[in-house]
Amino acid sequence: MTAVSTEDLAIRIDTLTNTVNRLSQNLEDSTLSKKLKVSKKPDGDSDSNSITFGEDENEERGNWSGRLDFLLSCLGYAVGLGNVWRFPYKCYQNGGGAFFIPYVIMLIFVGMPIFFLELSLGQFSSNGPLTCWKYSPMFTGVGWGMVIVSGFVGIYYNMIIAWSIYYLVASFTKLPGLPWDNCEQEWNSENCFEELKTCNGSEYYKNPNGTCYKTINGTQKRNGFWNLTAAEAAGIKKRFASEEYYYNKVLDISDGVDNLGGLKWELALCLLGAWVIVFLCLCKGVKSSGKVVYFTALFPYAVLVILFIRGMTLEGMKEGIKFYLTPDWDKLKKAKVWNDAANQIFFSLSASWGGLITLSSYNRFRNNLLKDTLIVSVGNCLTSVFAGFVIFSFLGYMAHKVDTDIDKVVDGGTGLAFVVYPFAVTQMPGPPVWAILFFLMLLTLGLDSQFALLETVTTAVMDRWPDKFDRKRKTYIILAVCVLFYLIGLFLCTNGGAYILELMDAYAGGWAVIIIGLCETISLTFIYGWSHFSNDISAMLGKKPWIWWRLCWSFMTPAILLFVLFFSWIDYSPAKFGDYEYPKYAEVIGFCITVVVVIPIPVYAIWRVLRSNGSCLEKLREAASPTEVWGPALNKHRLLAGYDPLPEKEKAPDTGKDMKGSGVDNYAFGN
């Protein structure tokens, strides 16, 4: 028998001691995890694990300070200008009630599943859209696409808010009336009229083109229209006073995108004011914006209800509602209608823009996100439908007043909000009061969404470079982003700025967000795996998601998105601004905007595969597999979800190892 030295014996004893300690710690961790799983209830009912508001659960990142802060922020983010402007416009453009069918289908099978998916991803990982892809790092380019979309939309969305500020200020300038309540202003043309005139009397001359003139001091002056059919055949378009105020005074619009003209200083000041408001509301992070939304998310409903009641009392209202609800079945045969419905769902719910991931990343781990999904999705849809009743009741009245068809009353687009609604308030008693309330409503609707768009961009910057930009420097980051976006937005303050805005709206959030949504569902259900994702959700809710969500994420949602994408390419039609058709080079610029959004997806995936180790198949497997830092941010939640704890106060290195509950700390291309 070989003798063992004292030194060797001491080494063996130390090794045995370390092994016993490690096994003991593993047993203790396993016991704690089981206790947490048993004791922790879905809504945090357990005394030891209940959700406590007023103090941060995640001290490094911060959390919403109130129980309703997140819900109202999500509701405000989803319910925005798109509900009172874009949804009615799409109905107006796509055959009224026919648009409801694809819209509801897209809501149930696409919008709600992606909404729930994004809230789950953000809340579980406590990461923004750039760093939440640790479950499959090769898809980090999807996050870059989301941030770029939010950037594009944030730039032009604040311009619409600036228009609201312009109208809000203008509502005080002509008391007791409004600047757009008559056709006697310097910006009005001969085509402006307040009502259809019969032009009876010897002093009137009826022109064969449908117009009538009256001689005043030896000069013929157009007095109105006596035959709208003849006028339209002659290419003379009737215009409401509110329509001419918007196009001729507010925008002072040029004849096309290739004629930008000069900078309108009034719009530039309003845009500056919009960015100052956004900065002040966001400079303290989610805690400040979370309090603001208690007002901004609820106030618009009060104004819409008042306008709805007034609209229901007007002549011609029934024809407007009939147009709104009666479907044009032939429209359903066109791919554009389905594409518009899908885009409207993404726009309305703000899905695949990164904002939902950002907002939910500040949630407490046990927040009931399924309940939030149902409330916000259904509430958003009902708000859009209700806003449609409001606007089409007034469209019916306007059509009745000028004796024309409803689909010929006004042009669509942003003008629907800034022509029909301003006209609507002139029909109320005390118009300035209602104008002030309405444009204050538009302002609050826009601000809710703008908060989340900017939060998405700034959170992405902080998550991407956490060592350089911590929470203490967040105010400076927000300031820098606001200044940069304001300078870019000055192009929208020119005479041709409205053409640029419409181009950005058509191409930044069209096909691009559908592709992003498709990549999200594929990466989580097919690459990461339904079972893993289901277990992650179970750790937060206390139960696995219904089989319905699996059917949507695994089959119906990606199938519908592929269908819409494919047929919208086949049945492609260029973007328009009313009757104006963009030149070819503008269309090319639009496609470039779409490419800028989606190109990071394949580029990052290829880059991630190439930098991995091993053979081609091994590289692909490593790039698609989660690594050691994937999972909840806090160790107590990692144990609950069955993940290995991370070292305290330091981040695990991005080694790319394939292991349970791991993921790459994906800090972009410079990893």
Automatic annotation (TrEMBL):
Subcellular location: Membrane
Regions of compositional bias (Basic and acidic residues) in chain numbering: 647-660
Keyword Oxidoreductase: no
InterPro entries linked to this entry: Na/ntran_symport (IPR000175), SNS_sf (IPR037272)
Ranges that cross the membrane: 70-88, 100-121, 142-169, 265-283, 292-309, 341-362, 374-399, 433-454, 475-501, 507-530, 551-570, 585-607
Keyword annotations: Disulfide bond, Membrane, Metal-binding, Sodium, Symport, Transmembrane, Transmembrane helix, Transport
Residue ranges that the Swiss-Prot or TrEMBL entry lists as coiled coil: none
Any one cellular-component term (Gene Ontology): plasma membrane
Membrane topology qualifier: Multi-pass membrane protein
Disulphide bond pairs: C183-C192
Protein residues bound to Na(+): G76, A78, V79, N83, S348, N380, L445, D448, S449
Record has Cytoplasm as a keyword: no
Chain residue ranges for the region called Disordered: 37-62, 647-671
Principal cellular location given in the protein's record: membrane
GO terms, molecular function: glycine:sodium symporter activity; metal ion binding
Family in the record: Belongs to the sodium:neurotransmitter symporter (SNF) (TC 2.A.22) family.
Full protein name: Transporter
Organism of origin: Dimorphilus gyrociliatus
